[in-house]
Amino acid sequence: MREDNFRKLDPYVPGIQPAFADMIKLNTNESPYPPSPKVIEASERFNAADLRLYPSVDVGPIRDALAEYHGFDRSCVFVGVGSDDVLATIFQACFNSGRPVMFPEITYSFYEVWARLYNISVKKIPLRPDFTINADDYCGVENGGVVIANPNAPTSIAMEKGDIEMIIRSNPENVVVIDEAYIDFGGESVLDCVPKYDNLIVVRTFSKSRSLAGARIGYCVANPELINVIETVRNSINSYTNNRPAIEMGVASVKDEEYFRAMLAKVIATRERLAKELRALGFTVLPSSANFVFATPPAPLTAAEVYDRLAEKHIFVRHFKIPGIDNYLRITVGTDDQVDTMLAEVKKLI
Ligand code: PMP
Description:
Elements: E1 24-25, H1 37-45, H2 60-70, E2 77-80, H3 82-94, E3 101-104, H4 110-117, E4 122-125, E5 145-149, H5 161-170, E6 176-179, E7 200-205, E8 218-221, H6 224-234, H7 244-254, H8 257-280, E9 284-285, E10 292-296, H9 303-312, E11 315-316, E12 329-332, H10 336-349
Parallel strand pairs: 1-11, 3-4, 3-5, 5-6, 6-7
Antiparallel strand pairs: 2-8, 7-8, 9-10, 10-12
The structure holds 4'-deoxy-4'-aminopyridoxal-5'-phosphate.
């Protein structure tokens, strides 16, 4: 067959999902805690016989639950199969001008993959030397849209709300996407700005703070006109997306605020301890507002050496072989026990 029949792409490479019984998995920013007991109950209540029916086209129950939870009309909410699905749909729907989409040079690397997939040109903006995002770089520049992860990944650093609003206000003609995958762990959300700015889309996920990575639920909140544009693209690809059990589990999660808050508090407390102990070992740890830390070991130890030693012990963290961050490790906050086991191994290397 002719080669030119086929797309050539460099796909996003997710963290490995190794399968060792004794594995400590701190590499993909999942929650170390199970979802709410109400989610478990919902899964047990689910009648598998109902799987013969398609789920509701607009994922009604979870859309309604999220609209009520955040205080928006349901027409402001779009739900997808994880926030990756929501973001991919936004890229297709909202970055259609031919002008470049701007995002930080070091950020969630899937943004660039979607841009290439959908033939969207990109303008990558370097971070400051301290890995923070300079809002001025995104203002007064010709572009076809802006995407910012707040807190940013893998740096874990959150941006000031005022800076984000400045970017939104400076780009009234283009869509500004704020990916708040990690916002429940720190930083200030701009969800309440949605009624103020008709170019703002805020993206959220159930994968991290709601312990539901395996259920694949993400959503975005924006004005109804933007939601309608996104839905039109969705309905041009696949009408039935989130599956029935996921919808029911997602609703149950949204309705258990107490458990949600309790798990966040645990992760945040462990994060602070992890950062403190790594610093005591000589690591430089960036200020984290997420459920992971981004840290570089004291010389002469390298991130690659730490990664390899931990992997030998079946402890998995993330090491990106990307210039500028290749001596850093992204370590997901685990349970206190998991973190202690990891720290004990690191101590042996120092
Ligand atoms: N945005 C960011 C910044 C992320 O780190 C991730 C997790 N890989 C996602 C979006 C996607 O998460 P999910 O599809 O599980 O909602």
